């Protein structure tokens, strides 16, 4: 298969999965609106759900921009040992950074929540703290998912990484 056909196929695949992801996201919003209506709980849920989305965008973009060209270059130069060291050290560093960020958020969750939902009452702040504590483990996974997605993209495997937003 020619390179142009591979690119076209990958583009169509990504467009289709992105479209499916947006439809599922829309249905999620419809469900939330039907379940909670316009309430502080719904507002807090939406506010807290931006945390993993923001983190995924930042880590995914940074890891892709930094890793994909390096992986492709090392793979093309058949530098298997350097490639293994790169992936291993990046996995370790990403894990440590995400665990560190999650730990900091856990330690300072009340302060963060107080700023994050400023203007809401104490009950809303407590609910925000509870919701953030629920998503903290997911933050570690998001960093690692971004790393694995970058590696798969460098090897031109686009389907599995493109399915991530559907589950998010």
Offer a few descriptive terms.
168 residues, mainly alpha, 6 helices, 89% helix, flat, MurJ, Lipid_II_flippase_MurJ/MviN, membrane, transmembrane, cell shape
Q: Would you give an account of this structure?
A:
This protein has about 170 residues and is mainly α. The chain has one domain. It contains six helices and no strands. α1 packs parallel to α6, α2 runs antiparallel to α3 and α4 packs across α5. It is flat and about 60 Å long. The chain starts with a helix and ends with a helix. Keywords: Cell membrane, Cell shape, Membrane, Peptidoglycan synthesis, Transmembrane, Transmembrane helix. Pfam families: MurJ. It is a multi-pass membrane protein. This is Lipid II flippase MurJ. GO terms for molecular function: lipid-linked peptidoglycan transporter activity.
Strand content: under 5%
Number of E-type strands: 0
Low-confidence stretches: none
Q: How many strands, what sense, and barrel or not for the largest sheet?
A: none
Q: How confident is the prediction overall: mean pLDDT?
A: 85
Query: What is the distance, rounded to the nearest whole angstrom, between the alpha carbons of the first and last residues?
Result: 33 Å
Helix content: over 70%
User: Helices and strands: which structural class?
Assistant: mainly alpha
Provide the succession of SSEs.
HHHHHH
């Amino acid at each position: 298969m020619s390179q142009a056909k591979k690119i076209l196929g990958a583009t169509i695949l990504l467009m289709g999965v992105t479209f499916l992801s947006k439809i599922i996201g829309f249905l999620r919003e419809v469900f939330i609106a039907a379940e909670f209506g316009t309430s502080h709980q719904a507002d807090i849920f939406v506010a807290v759900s931006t945390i993993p989305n923001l983190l995924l965008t930042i880590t995914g973009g940074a890891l892709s921009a930094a890793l994909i060209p390096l992986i492709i270059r090392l793979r093309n130069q058949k530098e298997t040992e350097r490639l293994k060291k790169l992936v291993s050290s990046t996995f370790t560093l990403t894990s440590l950074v995400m665990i560190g960020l999650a730990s900091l958020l856990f330690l300072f969750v009340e302060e963060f929540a107080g700023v994050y939902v400023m203007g809401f009452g104490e009950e809303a702040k407590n609910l925000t703290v509870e919701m953030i504590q629920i998503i903290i483990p997911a933050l570690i996974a998001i960093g690692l998912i971004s790393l694995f997605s970058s590696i798969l993209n460098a090897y031109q495997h686009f389907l599995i990484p493109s399915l991530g937003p559907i589950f998010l």
